[in-house]
Amino acid sequence: MRALYPWIELSSKSVLDCRVFKVSSSERQSTKGKRGTFFSVDAPDWAGVIPIVETPEGRSFVMIRQFRHGTRHLSIEFPGGIVEPGEDPATAIARELIEETGYRAEMIVPLGILSPNPAFMTNTFHAFVAEGCTLERAQCLDEHEEIEVMLVPEREAIDMIGAEDMGHALMTATLFFYERYRGKLD
Asked: Does residue 21 sit in the same domain as residue 81?
């Protein structure tokens, strides 16, 4: 079996700038001589967090409900957002958590890093858990954000995965990381 190597970029150009992402076109060649034109979506890195609140009934997640323009549906998710250029992902998620929910964490723990879709997207997704969350202030939302904050018991949140309003793939992946973090995966 022959080893695989990264393709060589022969040329690249920007095709479209859509404010939240850019589309690029690249001419590439493999070490075996295959050539092709490939398109990529150049988006900033994202981060998401599972915020934990200890209640008398057990662990609960701070979750958010918002309208998603891509699916045209309301979606129940974990807080998250864009990692600004040069910003540490843990700093970004602490900022997003307090802006979107008003909760602050005692401790933020990295869970893992994913490529949302390596076939054509250039960014990464950073997953975190936020332990010891307490409500500190009111939300401070961006201009186009309308977010409802929900406190959902841990088991109930896990059981909701795959429902129409909780089908965000990166949230499911974050829950997988969380289950591993808690030692619930064999």
From this structure: no
Whether residue 58 is found in the same domain as residue 75: yes
pLDDT tens sequence across 110-136:
999 999 999 999 999 999 999 999 999
> Taking the CA of residue 44 as centre, how many other CA atoms within 13 Å lie in the half-sphere pointing to its CB?
16
Give whole-number Cα distances, 158 to 25, 69, 152, in Å. Answer: 39, 24, 10
In this structure, are 61 and 152 located in the same domain? Answer: yes
How many helices and strands, by DSSP H and E, does the chain display? Answer: 3, 12
Looking at the structure of the chain, the number of domains it has is 2
What pTM was estimated for this model as a whole? 0.91
Cβ distance 12 to 32 under 8 Å?
no
